[in-house]
Specification:
CATH topology: TIM Barrel
CATH class: Alpha Beta
Number of domains: 1
Largest sheet: 8 strands, parallel, barrel
Structural class: alpha/beta
Order of helices and strands: EHEHEEHEHHEEEHEHEEHEHEH
CATH superfamily: Luciferase-like domain
Number of helices: 10
Number of strands: 13
Distance between the termini: 10 Å
Helix content: 40-55%
Length: about 300
């Protein structure tokens, strides 16, 4: 089991760099970064808070921190043309010496599409478009000259040079819907989902069915998860947070309880867990302390088992 840190896109560059530096020194596997252009809102109004551009941040971390694996979480193909995503991934993979995972999705965040004028089609058309996009990306990453004829995308003997250091550069899809799971099973190298161990178990069953339908051995697809982490010190705080934390998406408890919960992911065959910093403190110092504590008291214990 490997562990990656996930700083929110609103954090300053200085905080992201500091967290990445500490994570690398202490044994974390990687850094994930969300690809959104603005903060989400409950009413789909424009998000006014800061949101740094994801691929620029990943390139900067790649140059500044020499070991951490770097994952885009996840780049929507409604906003990014697949050719540009392939080129960005190849470029950052070269900068990093082969440490990129290209996470992609069909697009979902209403306010950034509406505010910036990006089309967000109805679900069926959105998935149709994604199905073409992931094929285009895989062709560009792997073929000397890529040709593709689709409804949304067309390639004619298209080069994508230089190729990434990794052959292949892994493509991750974060999804849970039945048709997207089939596309993931057909074309992706890694599948990602949100959830606590119980929810991940249910979603993994659906993914394995999708793999069966596509004649794909599920063991050939890496699996990663993320959940909101609430690290507590006493039973009263634990009980209070369990009542408030988002159901099905949260891990709440003392370090020993979290070790057992994360161990359930391991037993299910999960390869990597990303820990968002969203619940780890209200200041850079508090978040850094919580990340260090999670590594020392939870992640390191799981790795040592």
């Amino acid at each position: 089991m490997r562990f990656s840190v996930w700083p929110s896109y609103e954090r300053t560059w200085e905080e992201v760099l500091g967290l990445a530096t500490v994570a690398e020194a202490s044994g974390w596997h990687g850094l994930w970064y969300a690809d959104h252009l603005m903060s989400n809102t409950d009413d789909d109004s424009p998000g006014a808070g800061p949101a740094h551009e994801g691929w620029t941040m990943l390139a900067a971390v790649a140059a500044a921190v020499p070991r951490l694996r770097l994952t885009s979480m996840v780049s929507p193909v409604t906003i990014h043309h697949p050719v540009l995503l392939a080129k960005r991934a190849c470029t950052v993979d070269r900068i990093s010496g082969g440490r990129v995972t290209l996470g992609i999705g069909a697009g979902w965040q209403v306010n950034e599409h509406a505010s910036y004028g990006f089309q967000l089609p109805e679900p069926k058309e959105r998935v149709d478009r994604f199905d073409e996009a992931i094929q285009v990306i895989q062709l560009l990453l792997r073929d000397p000259a890529a040709s593709f004829e689709g409804r949304w995308f067309t390639l004619q003997e298209a080069p994508c040079e230089p190729k990434p250091v990794q052959r292949p550069l892994p493509v991750l899809v974060g999804t849970g819907s039945p048709r997207m799971l089939r596309i993931t099973a057909r074309h992706a190298d890694e599948w990602n989902t949100w959830g606590d161990p119980a929810q991940v178990r249910e979603r993994t069953s659906l993914f394995e069915r999708a793999c069966e339908a596509e004649d794909r051995d599920p063991s050939t697809v890496r699996r990663s998860v993320q959940a909101l982490v609430f690290l507590t010190d006493d039973d009263a705080t634990t009980a209070k947070l369990r009542d408030r934390a988002p159901a099905g998406r949260s891990l709440v408890g003392r370090p020993s309880e979290l070790v057992d919960l994360v161990g359930e992911y391991v037993a299910q065959g999960v390869d990597e867990m990303a820990v968002p910093d969203f619940t780890l403190g209200d200041s850079p110092a508090a978040r850094a302390e919580s990340c260090a504590r999670f590594w020392e008291e939870v992640a390191a214990e799981v790795v040592a088992r």
